C-alpha cells in the first residue's frame, strides 16, 4: 500500500514540475516577440 501511495505522489510531482516548466516557457513566449523567439530557436 505504501508503494502505491509513493508512486502516485511521484507521478503527481512529475506532472506538477512539467506544468511549472510549461507555464514558465509560456510566460517567456508571451514576453518575447515571435520574430525574436524564432531567432532564439535558430541559434
Topology, pairings included?
Elements: H1 2-31, H2 34-42
Transmembrane segments: 6-26
Keywords: Membrane, Transmembrane, Transmembrane helix
Characterization of this structure:
With 43 residues, the chain is mostly helical. The protein has one domain. The chain contains two helices and no strands. It is rod-shaped, with a radius of gyration of 17 Å. The N and C termini lie far apart (49 Å).
In short:
This protein has helices at 2-31, 34-42. The chain is mostly helical and 43 residues long.
What characteristics describe this protein?
43 residues, mainly alpha, 2 helices, 0% strand
Helix-residue proportion? over 70%
Helix tally?
Answer: 2
Unreliable residue stretches: none
Oligomeric status of the shown chains? single chain
Structural class: mainly alpha
Whole-number average pLDDT? 86
How many individual β-strands? 0
Order of helices and strands: HH
Q: Give the overall shape, derived from the CA principal axes.
A: rod-shaped
Distance N to C terminus: 49 Å
Q: Note the beta-strand portion.
A: under 5%
What is the alpha-carbon Rg in Å? 17 Å
Number of domains: 1
Keywords: Membrane, Transmembrane, Transmembrane helix
Transmembrane segments: 6-26
Amino acid at each position: 500500500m505504501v508503494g502505491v501511495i509513493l508512486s502516485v505522489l511521484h507521478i503527481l510531482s512529475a506532472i506538477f514540475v512539467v506544468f511549472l516548466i510549461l507555464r514558465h516557457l509560456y510566460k517567456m513566449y508571451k514576453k518575447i516577440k515571435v520574430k525574436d523567439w524564432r531567432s532564439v530557436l535558430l541559434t
